[in-house]
Every structure is written in C-alpha cells, then in structure tokens.
Amino acid sequence: MKHIKNTWQLFMIDWQRIFKNPIAIFLMVALMFIPSLYAWFNIKALWDPYANTSQLPIAVYSADKTQKFQDKSINIGEDVLKNLKKNKQLGWQFVDSKATLDKGVKSGKYYAGIYLPSDFSKNLLSFTTGDIKKPEIVYSINEKINAIAPKITSKGASSLQSQISEEFINTASRTLFNTFNTIGYDLDKNMVSIQKVKSMILSTNDNLATIDQYTQQVVALHGKLPELKGKLDKANQFANYLPQVDDLGDKIVKLDNNMPTIKNQLSVIMTLQGKIPEIQNAGKQLAMIDQDFAGVQQTMTNGIQEAKQGLTIIHQVQTALPDIKKLGNDATKLADVSLSGATQLKDALPTITNSVQVTLQSLKTVADSTSSIVTTVEQAIADDKLTPDEKAQINQLIQAAQANITTQQTAIKNLVDLMKQVETNAGNHDLDPAISRLEALSTVLGQVSEKIGQVNGFIQNDDIAAVEAVLDQINILSQNISALVGQIDVSSISTSVKNQLEQFIKTVTEAKGLLTQAQSIDFDSLLNATSQTVTNAIAILEKYQKEMPAIQQEVHDANTMLNGNMTAIVDGINKGASLYQNELPVVSQKLDQAADFVKNDYPSIRKDLTDTLGTVNQKMPELESALNQANDLIANDWPSIKAGVQKAADAIRKGEKEVDLGNIVKLLKLDATKESDFLTKPVDIQENAIYPIANNGSASTPFYTALCLWVGAVLFSSLAVTEVYIKDKDRGRYSKREQFSARMLTFIVMGIGQALIVTLGNYFGLGVSVHNPVYSVLFAELIAIIFMIMVYVLVGLFGNIGKGIAIIILVLSISGGGGNYPIQVSGKFFQFINPFLPFTHAVNLLRESAGGIYWPNAWSAILILVSVGVVFLVGGIWLFPHIEPTSKKISEAAHKSHIFH
C-alpha cells in the first residue's frame, strides 16, 4: 500500500507542476491534438478518392476506317467515341492524331492514352468471313506520374473493352439468330434432300477405317521419299566415282602382287621391339642431360667469372709486389716494436692494476663525501634558517664536490678507453661487463653532480622546502655508486688484460716467423706462371661457352622429340609388331579375295549399276510429284473431311435418338432479339454487402487512428522526460520503481486524452461512418494505453535507443500491419511479422467497431493487446532499477557529443 500511495503522490505532483506552468499546459494540450491532425488529414484526403476520376485526363484517338457489311456502313471507332463523350467516369480528352496522343502521355499531360487502329472495325467483323482476327485497343500509360492513377486508367480501358465486347456479342448473336431463322424456313422446304445427304454421310463414316489404311500407306511412302532420294543421290555420287573405283581396283591387284616383298620389309619391326628397353634408357639419359644443361652452362659461366676475377687479383698482386716486399720489411720492424711494447706493457701490468684499484677507491670516497654533504645540509636546514656564512660554506663544499666528480669521470673515461683498446687488439669482448659498470658509474656521478647543484641553488634562494625532496634522491644515488663500485672485480680485469697481452705477444711472434718465411718465396715467377695458366683456361672456357647454346638446343630438341613421343614410339613399335604377327596374315588373305573380286565379279556389277540408275533417275520426278499431291490432300484436307464426316454422322445419329428434326426447325425460327440478349448477359449478379462501410475514408479510419496513437506516444516521449524530478529532501522517500510507475501514469493519461480527441473528432468532426461509436472510443482508449505503456517502457529503460526502437516498430507497422492493403499482397517478410506486431491487432480491433463487431475476433485482439501491455508494464517496473544506471551512462556519453540531449 505504501508503494501505491507514493506512486499516486508522485503522479499528483506531476499534474500539479503541469497546471502551475502555462507553457506546460499549452504543450500538453498541443501534444493531445497534434497526433489527431495526422489521422484527420489522411482520412479526409482518402474520403472518396474515386469520386473525382472525371478530372483524370485520358487521351483518346480513333483511326478506324468505315467498313461495309450487308450493304451497311460500319465504323465502330466512331461509335466508341460517341459513347465516351457521354461517359463522365474519367476525363476523356479527344485528340486529333496518334502523335498528339503519344506526346501527351510521354510528357505527363495525360495519364494514359487509348488508340483504336485503322483496322479496328475490319478485324471486329472478320468473324463473318471465317478468317478471324481479334481487334486491338492500344493502351499507353505513364506509370511514373502517380502510383494509383495507372490502376484507375487501366480499369477505364478494361471497362471500354468490356463495353465493346458486349456490343459485339449482342450484334453478332442477333445477326446469327436472324440467319438461323432463314435457315429454319429453308430446312422445312428441303427435308427430302436432307435425308439423302444423311444416308451418304452415314455410309462414308462406316468405311472411314478402310480409307484410313490407304491414306496411311500413301503417307508412309511419302515420308520415305527423302530417304529414297538421298539414297538415289548417294548412288549417283557413287556412279561418278566409278572411274576412281576402277583405279582403286587396279591398285589392289598390284598391292596383292607385291605382298611377299612387303612382308619381308615389315619383319624389321620385330627387331625394334626387342630394342625397346635400350631406347627407353637412352631417352632417360638424354632427358637428364637436357634437365641439367642449364646448371652446366651456369657452372661454366661462374667458372669463367671466377677465373677472370682471379686473374685480376693476380695482376693487382704483381703490380703491388714491390710495395708488398717493402711492406714486409717494415712489417718485420713493426713486429719487433709491437713485441717489445707488449712485453713492456705486460711487465707494467701490476702498476696498471694498482691504478684501477686506486680509481675505484676514490669513487667510494665520492660516495662517502656525498653522504657527508647531505648530512651537513640537513643539519644546516634543521631550524629552517640559513645564515650567510652557512650558505657560503655549503656553496664552497658543493663546488669542490662537483670538481672532484668531474675528475673522477675523466679517470673513468680513460680507464674505459684503455679496456676498449685492449679488446679491439685482442678481437674479443671479455671486458664488456666491467666497461658497462664503469660507464654506469660515470652516469650516476653526473646525476649526483646535477642534484647537489640543484640543492646549492635552492639553499642560496632560501627554498628550504625544495631542498628536502632532492636530498633523498642524492642519498639513493650515493648508495648506487657504492653498489656499482662493489660489483667491479679488479683482479678479473687484470687477469683478462694479462691473457690478452700474452695472446698478442704469441700472435706477433708467430707472424714475425711467417714474414721471414714469406720473404724467401719467389713470388714473381709464381705469379707469372699462375697468370699464364689462368689466361689459357679462360680462353678455352669462353670457346666452349659460345658453343653451349647450340649444343643445348640440339640436346633439348632431341630430348623433346624422343621422350615427348616415347610412349607413341613404344606403342607404335608394339602395335607394328602385333600387326605383323596377327593382322598382316589376315590382311594378306583379304587382299587376295579383294583382288579376285576386282578381276572376276566387278565388271558385271558395274554394268548393272549404271543401267539401273539411269532408269530410276528418269522416273523419280513423276513419282515425287504424284506422292506430293497425294500427301498434301491427306495432310491438309483429309483430317477435316474425316472429322466433318464423323461429327456429321454422330450428330445425325444423336439427333435421330434425342431430337426431332422438325423440332430443330421450330427452334431455329425463334425470336432472334430475345436469344441474342440472353447470350450477351446470360447471368445476373446479386451483390450482398456484409459489414458495409459508407466510404473509403471511413474504411481507412482504423488504420490511421491506430497509427496516430502510436505517433502520439512517440511524439510525447520525444518531448517529455521519463525521469521524475525530486527535491533533495525527498530523494530517499521514493524508490526508483515508484518514480517509474508514477511517470508512466502521467504518460497513460496523455494517451487517453489523445485517443478521446481523435475518436470523437473522427465521428463528430469528419462524420466517419462507425457502426459502434461507443466501442470505437473504448477500443481506441485501450489501444492508446497499451501503446503508451510500450513506448514509455522502451524510452524509460533505454533512453534515445528506446525512441529509435519505437520508430522502427512504427516503420514496420506501416508496412506489415495490413492497414491499407491486405497483408497477403505484401512480401513474405511482412507476412511473417504481421501476427507479431501489436499494431496489427489494434487495427483489427478498430475495424470491428467500424463495420460491426464480430466478438470472437474482437476478444482475440483485446487479449493479445492486453497481454502485450501487461508484459511491458511488469517487465518495465521490474527491470528499471537494474537498467537505469547503465542507461544513464549511455545518455551521459551521448550528451558529451553536444548533439544528443
């Protein structure tokens, strides 16, 4: 009860604030009316869209030419134009040419054009001659002007077509029945002759099977005529080749006589078959040479290049040999000097070690003196005051320390340079760890000098507070100095230097011996011989190099020819051997038989063939002409003759059983006017309207009313805030859910007002036809409450994102709600979402009150809408405290863009 009470209090506070603010009152009233304007304007615009179709311009032009029929002049095109001038359903514009009609339709002056061609009457009357041609009405339409106009104008063209068809049927049937009247009187006078014709038809029908057999034989023979002519042509062509056949027969006889010699020559193929493995092996070796030839050529090229480079080096050495000899003498002297220096440096190593030890000891002293300076400064600033004498003393102390640090850095640099030089000469990096530590020491000393300089500046400026922070840093740096000095092992450095000096002395001693040995070699003779040998080798290699492309091409061609056709070669040899062993004896036997035929039988056969072809060629045109005439008669006339005889016989027999010919004559004498009217309109249609609605505007009202209620909810949520303003003293009094529920009630009241205004405006303002006005208002109120709850919950939970979702639902509802058009004519996607859109059921519910309530449908829509509202109501109240912090963060992030509020 407390929650309900607090919610009601917040709800009343909302309306108290609204009524105290004139601007708020104005906005509330405006937001109640504005959505209704959306519905009212659309309903009024669609009130009766087909009432003004007479203003819709449609061009009409008839080029129809007058036709003569039964001594009467007929121009149906003119009759059509006369009737259209009386027709006010569409805005008929009668133009004077087809060009004017086409230009007007293309330019948009006319929505459509109807053109009756010059042969319209002629084709319409063609049924009287038996050669029927359907007349055409050329209907042109400009579909880009408007979406609905093409449907209206198409309906006009269809109505015109129906009108012409109805008039044609009426006229044709009247003419037909007038003819039947005449026939009826003629039949009555010629009854005896009719009976004779009847007997002849029945007799012919009884013998149709026999006649069919004859016709089938004739057709079969005619069907084989092309085949016979083709065979005759081939026979004639063969006769033309008889001289060549004669020549071929002579060759067969000669070949048969030479067969023993051919057999002897073909026996070589058996020897080749035994050599196939050797041929295949030769192919593999040739392929290997071809594959590796590029490598051989590259190797030769590389060899020539290397030989030329070596020859260049030899020439350079020969040129430089005098200097080299001199350099050798100087090198011997250098070796003596270097050996002496290294030996002396090794003897002085203890002294160097002591120097390093002294340098490191002095670095420890710097660390101690730095700590002493820090202590002195701390004591001086203990009382936060410094006398001029203290400042001068500290200044002198720090300057001396900085000078000492500079001296130590110089000593470290000299020591590092010495170690690097020793490493360079030895060709290793054994002293790198000690060098790194000494360089780090130099860096730390520089930092100490900088920091104590800062301290001196602060002291001289009486900035005591800044001094204390720097002193801690100096203490840390002095501790680093002591740690780094402790990490340097002097004995290890001394040992490394000693080992490198001993290695240097050994290397110099060995080099000196090698120099002495090299001076005894006769390099002049050696280099001359070497140069001559390399020159000769280069000349030989270059000679072969020039011949290499031709050799490579020959090898490649041989490889391609042999290995590319190896399978064919082997198969050919094997097939040749098989032919020699198996087929050749058979061929030899057949050849003997063929030669015997040519000698003994062929001459008489040739004479018979020539004589027979002459006779056939002479008689073929007469046979073809007769068969064509017979086949044409059977193909074109016999089916209709046969069908006519059968139908006539069937009709006669059926008529004799069922109808008296006298009665038929009486029937043909009936009134032609009444019979033609029956054929023109054989059926009358009785329309029965269920749930009638007065006009199109009233039929569209449910869709636009539901749409305006959703638009109203979205519009109000875009301007009104969902967050309740609470004073600081009352912040702990109301819970999040209470605030959410109270503001929802305010939104619902707004929706109720919007629904009341739009429904009453529909009924009393526009005069919309509503079958159940009270239920129309109640249903609209229910829909407004549901829609407002849905939109409020979306906006309250998700802010601007919720507004976007509401707009998406609006867009989908317009297309998928089945408002203006049956959902069955929409796409598959919209048919799928239709049952899941609340808008669908809202429109269906409002339609019930508009045309007459069918309560099973109404209760179904009510239950679905209420269920959706309850889900959103309960879900929103339960989720709001959990989602509200996240929603606020998203809103704040959007506010930072200075675009979204």
Overall 3D geometry? flat
Number of helices: 29
Write out the strand line-up for the largest beta sheet, numbering strands in chain order.
4-1-5-6
Radius of gyration: 61 Å
Number of domains: 4
Count of DSSP strands = 6
Polypeptide structure, described:
It comes from Pseudolactococcus plantarum. Residues 26-181, 712-848 form the ABC-2 type transporter transmembrane domain. The protein is mainly alpha-helical. It folds into 4 domains: 2-47 and 695-895, no CATH class; 53-187, abc type-2 transporter like fold (3-Layer(aba) Sandwich), CATH 3.40.1710; 278-337 and 522-564; 348-519. 81% of the residues lie in helices and 3% in strands. It has helices spanning 2-20, 22-45, 76-86, 98-107, 120-124, 149-189, 191-206, 208-223, 225-240, 242-266, 268-274, 276-347, 349-380, 388-426, 432-460, 464-487, 490-519, 523-564, 566-600, 602-658, 661-668, 672-680, 696-719, 736-766, 773-798, 800-816, 828-833, 838-851, 855-895; strands at 57-62, 67-69, 72-74, 91-94, 112-116, 138-141. The strands form 2 sheets. It has a 4-stranded mixed sheet with strand order 4-1-5-6, with helices on both faces. α14 (388-426) runs antiparallel to α15 and α25 (773-798) packs antiparallel against α26 (800-816). The radius of gyration is 61 Å and the shape is flat.
